Queue: 4 jobs
Job 1
Amino acid sequence: MTETASRPTLEAVAARAGVSRATVSRVVNGGDGVREPLAERVRRAVEELGYVPNQAARSLVTRRHDAVAVVIAEPETRVFADPFFALQLRGISKELTAHDSQLVLLLTEGRDDHARVARYLAGGHVDGALVFSLHLDDPLPGLIHGAGVPTVFGGRPGWGDGVREAVYVDCDNRGGARQAVRHLLGLGRTRVAHITGALDQTSAVDRLDGYRDVMGDADPALVAQGDFTPSGGERAMRELLERRPDLDAVFVANDLSALGVLRVLREAGRRVPEDVAVIGFDDMLPIAEQTEPPLTTVRQDIEDMGRLMARLLIGGLEGGSASKDPVPGRSGVVLPTTVVRRASA
């Protein structure tokens, strides 16, 4: 066994800097009232000794934990298999790191986990929460609201009770869907189908609404329900080919589902885009570039959405405007989308 070197103390820093312990405490905990020459001596002593502030003691002074919970309302098998979550987490992590704050990842494997997450948030372990991939019947928003934690949501919340207001970041799902369908119609396609995402999520509902905005009274048989997964895309594509074998284009709710769509069309002997044009949604690289053929899709900046979510939360905390309830009167931030054309449509 090796003997662990003792950690430098606040008193050691004070002795090195030639100031009082109280002065050191104010400097390392972000307090004010210390003249800059003295503060610089303290910072230099901290660096020379390798002093690391005690987080528990610091929290008592600052009322901050320098930690943010990221709550994903999905089981871990879905989270670690879908690149969407990796991109959003990367954006969140970059922004939190820039503000010297830690990311605490919380997943919900099932309904039993919701109370656990709510207890953790209410326990004062984090400064706020970033929550995404909510489902319409999800109790999490109400539980988080009851925990009194400042929160930013990823995606438009689906509740309409007029009581809980929310700060959220989303992309223009409905507008992006309109762009996708208009692109297909502009190619001369007339029998445009749609494979939805999971319709208990607002993003899927908005994309379906965007499809209907453009297609109007299209044959209901041209719409099949998916679930944002490759297997869901496969299943829905097979249904469409059985119901409407004459379809000549498909707007798919996301790129992962489009993987399954392309696989089924290939097995059915349908050429893409000659027989059936295909367009996805997300522009997740490298998926969209490595499909065969490369996938035309609607781009949303997933990583930037994550960064913006974290920026809104941290900005509210640092600016003093964050409260136990979501910021009142704030509408959602909706980022633009654009069609990225490749070979599939």
Note: The first strand starts at residue 67 and ends at 72.
Job 2
Amino acid sequence: MTTAAVALVCAVTVLTAPGVAYANSYANPAKPAPGPTPAPTPTTADDKDLEKVRKELDRLYHDAAVATDEYNAAEERAGEQSDELVKLARKIVKGQEKLDELKERVGAAARAQYRSGGLPPQAQLMLSDDPRLFLDGAGRVREGQQATKGLLAELTRTQQDLQAYAKDASTQWQRLEANRKAKAAAKKKIKSRIADAEKLEAKLEKEERERLLELEQETAYQNQAAWLSSGILEEINGKASAQGKKAVTYATAQIGKPYEWGAEGPKTYDCSGLTSQAWAAAGRGIPRTSQEQWKQLPRIDIKDMRPGDLIIYHDDASHVGMYIGDGAIVHAPRPGRTVTIAGAGSMAILGVVRPDR
């Protein structure tokens, strides 16, 4: 809790004084990242074996992250399709009410024409006491006939609209069912990968698990050091926008909360759930998944990054973190971990996107 509080204070400091809060951590590869670093402990397995375990865990959790994106995307599409089905259902109800009304009006017009048009026009003229009344009546009949034609045309259009609505509803229902199946398949895959990872970790002794965590931190730190060695941080000096500051404030306030796949807060998050909710809190809606964030949001060069921008990781865009300045991100790493601060270069960067460009 103390570590999380210190990290939170540091993260908020970044908003007002970029280049200070992490100058002695992520910006300087010669010094350790903030947070407790376990001292080396005796192990019952060779580090090479533990490194194999670490890589296997990475693979399992990566597969779970990909499946989580699939689940979130299917859930989002299913929600949109459900909303569309509700709208179509309302249109069908209103269309049916209009159709019933038009049928009644057309029937009434037809009955009126039948009553007035039972005799030929010549006979009606001969039997009429006043030819002018007959002519006036004939004019009204023609008007009635034209009105009836208009009603019939409107009736036909309404029927066509109803058929189109029904067809659209059928299509949306099929898509909804397909996305429900996709969600179920993704959920099954997520649970399977996480269960496999937990079983693998459960086989380790306490000292081995501690050493495994050290190896994870060392690998992340080495990646960060390699990224910083290019001098990239000297080029990154962008300042957060007003919305970016709000997004960072929200994201860093979640530090210490557990990762949970498919979660969007407020108690738990997955990686894209954290970033999408942070930007929603800043007044900017963005796609739910890291893959869609990568596809849809404007891309920028790494050197042009500023706090609030999103860094997309891995070739398949399966992870996302929010840049908070000084070479650091805040992100929800994976199951079994909490929202935390990490080096921006600690994972393979695919690219950077900016929600408020």
Note: The two ends are 35 Å apart (CA to CA).
Job 3
Amino acid sequence: MNIRRLRPTTALVRAAALGLTTLTACSSNVDDGRTDGKLDVVASFYPLQFLAQRIGGSAIHVSSLTKPGVEPHDLEISPRQTADLSEAGLVVYLKGLQPSVDRAIAQAEPRHVADAASYTTLEDHGTEVEGDHDHGGEGGHGDEGEEGHEGHAHSGDAAADPHIWLDPVRYAQVAKGVGKALEKADPDHATTYKKNTTALVKELTTLDQDFRSGLKDRSSDTFITTHAAFGYLAERYGLRQEAISGLDPESEPSPARIKGLHSVAKKDKVNTVFFETLVSDRTAKTLAGDLHLRTDVLDPIEGIGDKSKGDDYIQVMRSNLKALQKALGTK
């Protein structure tokens, strides 16, 4: 996704990165991916950084390739970051979300790699948003088990929706995978990782239950949001996501799409247009103004910043739940 905005790595940058890798590899080999005895973990962006921090605790050092306030789809990897990947004890990323990260990992060849996409199923929630309700069947499978998802797009599929962390059930599956990856990379602290993984999965299970119970008895199933980040969340809880843009948060909607959203809003009694914290709210506010609807934040939690309604993933997800309850008219 977002291939059009990602430039190929130049030969010069590759050479520089390889040079840095060569210079730094000697010192890192002594520590085997550790600093001061702690495993060095590099996460590609915030949701995976959160998992690593919660599971690794004080046994690891965690850094993120995507800095706070940066839209992860826009990330370009520097030679220094490529070198960091080669030195890390574990790299945690989501294949297909950030093509520059995928390329850098292939180049750096880290000791241990955890691909979040390999721990759950990825689905195609429709990147085309033209027309009215054609693509909107993201709801209706809220109680379906994971075994019901066979035959959908899996990791590596260019059309697959990467936003798996917005479904607490899938996110818990990824947490278990990251926990096992940490155990493999650092067996000495396996007991700690197991304990912390269990505690986090329990917290995510509670979050899932709270979404299920909190979204019952609603007056509408449909919500309008800036870009199609909430397909997994919509599917999990039987909701219907209508996105102004597709999976690309910065793509401009067509006149036909705007017209379609007008009819959706009237037909499904939508009262709110959601925007997010890391992307311009201009289109969402224009649409809301045209339809005399209110606006609110539904955060895809691709990063935590000054505008985030919470200090971490759990807090922001609970803020999202409150926003959905208000927009969908829960009793």
Note: Strands lie at 34-35, 38-43, 60-64, 90-93, 113-115, 222-225, 240-243, 272-275, 294-297.
Job 4
Amino acid sequence: MGTNSNNNTTLQDLAKLAGVSVSTVSRALNDEPVISAKTKQRIWALAREHDYPFRHYMPAAPIGAEGSIAIVTPHMRGRPVPLTHPFFLELIAQIGEAARARSCDFMVSHTSPENYDDLVHAVTTSRASGVIFLGQGMLHDQLNQLATSTNGHFVVWGAHMPGQKYCSVGSDNMLGGRRATLHLARMGRRNIMFLGGSDPEALQRRRGYMEGVRESGIEADPKLVVAVEFELEAAEAAVARLIHRGVVFDGVVATSDLIALGAIRAIKRAGRSVPGDVSVVGYDDMLLSRLSTPTLSTIRQDTAEAGRLLVSRVLDFSPDHLPVHLPTDLIVRESCGG
């Protein structure tokens, strides 16, 4: 906190602290394009640090919102988490519904943090009431540092990690991966493939898969654990390569519905049937999973409850908020067979 703890900071105070004119401070706080992004960031950071009362001086939102939320997607393996991913689109929609219920505006930020300084900018140079990060990317340690070194309000959609100091909302990833694997094993599948990436949620789902394999008495085969990041096309190509090499598998556990649908495309193009030859389980329960042919068995994540919790945790922020594990449900559809 700054030296003025009773919200007595004025435009003149900010101007003196920033070494600029009062008019520059006013224009920066109003996000006018004539002021450089660097200057705006410095002034917004000073305003937050010194408890400048934004809403008393700044124009109200067009619909008189009682607050605002910024949605930020961190980098993952050298690129932003893709907003075009259907699951993230559905989750953003549910965040929007929850924000609307709280008379709150929300925006999707153009920023995509790659390091600690980027995270600090995301939570301290925005005029939003708080920030929702969609995924941890590879920034778990930096998010821990952020939670203990700034007064920014933020919550993360993602995995619950060891030693976590920030609030997150996410599904029970290990249980989800385990349930999908055990279901396929109970159906008699003995060569079950895992398709997933290197983000924290996917790694936890892979651990659940490994637990399910061990519990079922199936011999683990490293060739059946395949790295795939996000895209349907990448999953399709990876499975097609395995089929071409003669790798034997009769089940697939995927870390997302999109990856599962890519696997099904490759299996069908190879002249095999789903679920006759191969049973497939995805993760998310996106709308696409209910519309595909065959319809996709999946581990359901409750995006409506996730959106509500993310919004409530960031608007009613408390550093004492604990991570939330949402339950997962196995939804059995045509891709698993009888």
Note: The two ends are 61 Å apart (CA to CA).
